[in-house]
Automatic annotation (TrEMBL):
Its cofactor is Mn(2+); a divalent metal cation; Mg(2+). A motif (Nudix box) lies at residues 38-59. This is RNA pyrophosphohydrolase. The keyword Hydrolase applies. GO terms for molecular function: hydrolase activity. InterPro entries: Nudix_hydrolase (IPR020476), NUDIX_hydrolase-like_dom_sf (IPR015797), NUDIX_hydrolase_CS (IPR020084), NUDIX_hydrolase_dom (IPR000086), RppH (IPR022927). Its EC number is 3.6.1.-. Residues 6-149 form the Nudix hydrolase domain. Accelerates the degradation of transcripts by removing pyrophosphate from the 5'-end of triphosphorylated RNA, leading to a more labile monophosphorylated state that can stimulate subsequent ribonuclease cleavage. Keywords: Hydrolase. Belongs to the Nudix hydrolase family. RppH subfamily. It comes from Methylomonas aurea.
Length: 175
């Protein structure tokens, strides 16, 4: 599914633990790290797609996480010219994403990478909240920043059971 402007609808997932650290996953067979993400199928709304992608990429189910929030609007990024498949129709020039922030509420040993039709990741680690901005591939940095700015505020809300120290200390370093 590609929209009329050439963007593929997608969801992104920021999964945090009780310390406000985030799940950072290594792409299988590469030295490339990212948040879980994936396309929205034609019969799905963004939340349904998010839970499907969460299961396929991390082995976690809805009962393993607490949904803290989502971005209000689509966030877009363009692919660099060399990644655009010129021979595909319709032409996909990038992704438009709804981002979700989740809190893990089960043991991290529940994470597994063999649930989807194609394994996306082969390793993961908890990192400080803003660390991904320094490590993600360059063309995704702006959309990561927008999602993390908007959703990170939820980690410091009084009703969210997460220690936001990681978020607050990392924020100062990232600016």
């Amino acid at each position: 599914m590609i929209d009329s402007k050439g963007y593929r609808p997608n969801v992104g997932i920021i999964l945090c633990n009780d310390e406000g650290r985030v799940f950072w996953a290594k792409r299988k067979g590469a030295n490339s790290w990212q948040f879980p993400q994936g396309g929205i199928d034609g019969d799905e709304d963004p939340e349904t797609a998010m839970y499907r992608e969460l299961w396929e990429e991390t082995g976690l189910r809805a009962e393993h996480v607490q949904l803290l929030g989502r971005t209000r609007y689509w966030l877009r990024y363009k692919l660099p010219e060399r990644y655009i498949r010129k021979n595909s129709t319709p032409l996909c020039i990038g992704q438009k994403q709804i981002w979700f922030i989740l809190r893990l509420n089960t043991d991290e040993s529940m994470v597994r990478f063999d649930c989807g039709h194609k394994q996306e990741f082969d390793s993961w680690k908890w990192v400080e909240y803003w660390y991904p901005l320094k490590d993600v591939v360059y063309f995704k940095r702006r959309v990561y920043r927008k999602a993390m700015d908007e959703l990170g505020a939820l980690l410091i809300a009084n009703d969210v059971g997460v220690n936001a120290e990681s978020y607050l200390s990392g924020r100062l370093e990232a600016c």
